[in-house]
Specification:
The structure holds two protein chains of two kinds.
Chain A lengths: L7 H9 L12 E6 L2 E4 L2 E5 L12 H14 L7 H4 L3 H14 L3 E5 L2 H12 L5 E5 L4 H7 L5 E5 L4 H10 L7 E6 L11 H10 L3 E5 L14 H4 L8 E5 L9 E5 L12 H4 L6 H16 L1 H21 L10 E6 L2 H13 L2 E2 L1 E3 L9 E6 L6 H17 L4 H8 L1
Parallel strand pairs in A: 3-12, 5-6, 5-7, 7-8, 8-9
Antiparallel strand pairs in A: 1-2, 2-3, 4-10, 9-10, 11-14, 13-14
Chain B lengths: L17 H15 L15 H4 L4 H15 L5 H4 L5 H12 L3
Classes of the chains: A alpha/beta, B mainly alpha.
The structure holds pyridoxal-5'-phosphate.
Amino acid sequence: MGLFDRHAGTIARSRAMLVDGFHPLSVRMDRVLSPTEALIGGRHTILLGTNNYFGLTFDQSCIDAAVEATRLEGTGTTGSRIANGSYGDHLDLETEMAEFFGMKHCMVFTTGYQANLGFISSLVGEGDFLVLDADSHASIYDACKHTQATIIRFKHNDPASLEARLRRLDKEPGNKLVVVEGIYSMMGDTAPLKAFVEITKRHGGYILVDEAHSLGALGEGGRGLVEAAGVLDQVDFVVGTFSKTLGAIGGFAVSNHDDFDILRVMTRAYMFTASLPPSIVASVRAALKVVRARPDLRVRLWENVATLYDGLAALGFRLGPEHGPVVAVHMPNEQTTIGCWRALLEEGVYVNLAVPPATPSGGSLLRCSLSAAHDRAQIDKVVAAFGRVGERFGLLDRQKVAAID
Amino acid sequence: MRASHNLKIVEPMDDVATDDRLEVLEDIRGRLEPYRTDDRAIVGGTVITKDLNIDSLAVMDMVMEIEDRYDISIPLNVVSEIHTVDELTDTVLRIRGGH
Ligand SMILES: Cc1ncc(COP(=O)(O)O)c(C=O)c1O
């Protein structure tokens, strides 16, 4: 058996994604023009799958900060902070992130993926229990492979399911760490966090919330679901990313636990990888200032969410369970999803093609994410394009009803 | 998942009443029935992710249902070492028996 033979099934599946010699993974953005527009194959295309929730990738203050930092401190750190040392700006960013969440400590990672992978896997060990939502992000599942802790899954967003699992563990002496997300990245639904926190505390557990998709989007101050649900002072750890609302790359973990800093020398995904370059640290610090100063961006974002979600629902598409910065459009099967995705691209709309194993419960989705930077005309165009494509593929509920009649 | 884990699959136990075992086995076979690929019956020796049209995610989801049915914890670390219907059955019995 050759090295690549084990991937034969995936290779066949990937070939089946070829339509007229065109593969979804071969899309080339010739030029990204703004947070919401790119040139793809010579066509001006609306970007509706960026996670760029506040549109800060082109914010002037963020760009200026990144350029200035590059001039002053160079293009990269060329090593990890444990080996090469921390730049003052790394420490300042950590102070500002901790302060933003009203916590004592912050650790910054090179990506959000590494933050989850490294942080979660070094928090729990042999004899402990990692209790996670069934629809957790891949980075959380991968953390499970890097710890000796016992892994227990509970039903997605189901407090009773969490409660049953923690109750069964009541007699176990090990620590219990519950891991949930603020907003789920594929369906755009929000966790019943208040209930999760209450249940976890009642059973003596710790709780970690990944706010990757909710930072900026939720809470009066943009601190995510922990703020919106009023549990900021009760959660043990908040993890998140700089790659979405903050418009750059990187991850973080914040906490009030006194011995938090020891994790810097316990977390391999922090120790054995190069730290964030000065430009990124500078733009993230600038972006955090924007998030604090511009609550109007959050209002814009949710207006756009409502326009898209309600527009698609009115057309008869089946959507994720609630309004959210991520709007998931359910598709009947993988082939139709690919066809619709391609047709939307031809209409000048780029969304995320989401198929298993990236999706929950084996379904296929057209995943849309909104930005405060989208204007009304763009979203109207998107809804119209979805209408034409849905009609062509017979996906709209009224068509199904008509067919049954 | 890790091979070296403190929760290990143990050999089927003789001291478990056979009626009990039959009942759990039947329950699991019933849950797997929708994933049959041909007319071969699901038996104790059926290898779950190989002989049936079920992926590991669906297996994990089924395990959550089994956990609630028997009010037990079946860690993912244990699930990843289960291959056959017999092994799953014996795991349920072992954990339910407090082992
Ligand atoms: C819930 C969740 N956590 C973590 C990550 C990882 O973040 P990053 O892309 O910054 O590595 C993502 C996004 O990819 C995510 O959706």
